[in-house]
Specification:
Blueprint lengths: L3 E11 L5 E5 L8 E6 L5 E5 L3 H9 L8 H8 L8 E2 L12 E3 L4 E8 L4 H4 L3 H12 L1
Antiparallel strand pairs: 1-2, 1-6, 1-7, 3-4, 3-5
């Protein structure tokens, strides 16, 4: 089973602190996957939407048009050390989301781990998803 994926790095600039940084990106042509970013902007992981837990969560949310799948999966993924996952790109200098630009000049490649769901897989997934969907409303 693949545990990392090589993805390109691109330039970005923070709209809050003005610092430039490189960030990994899956690009627009990827279907069924999402790049997670830690809220401190220093760690990334890729959610494969067709793997076991994401597919189960998608099935649980199929009849719920008011709940977004990706934020629920970000909350269920095993958290990065000392942080939490976000579906937004965060600046690694100040932690703020919303860069001035992203997907700038390509700056090489990085191996990004696939998100793991070991903590939620051990529990009652239906109850965990219900709790998270209640928070989104």
């Amino acid at each position: 089973m693949q545990t990392v994926r090589a993805v390109p790095l691109f330039d970005a600039r923070c709209s809050h602190c003005g610092e430039a940084f490189a960030h990994p990106s899956l690009g627009d042509a990827v279907y069924g996957a999402l790049m997670l970013c830690s809220v401190d902007g220093r760690q990334h992981a890729i959610v494969d939407g067709f793997s076991a837990v994401p597919a189960q969560v998608a099935a649980l949310l199929a009849d719920d048009p008011d709940t977004a799948l990706w934020p629920v999966l970000a909350a269920l993924a095993d958290p990065p050390e000392g942080s939490f996952w976000s579906v937004e790109l965060h600046c690694p200098h100040c932690g703020q989301p919303d860069p001035v630009f992203q997907e700038g000049t390509r700056r090489g490649m990085a191996d990004i781990p696939l998100a793991r769901f070991s903590q939620c897989a051990a529990g009652d997934l239906v109850a965990q998803v219900a709790r998270l969907t209640d928070r989104q409303r």
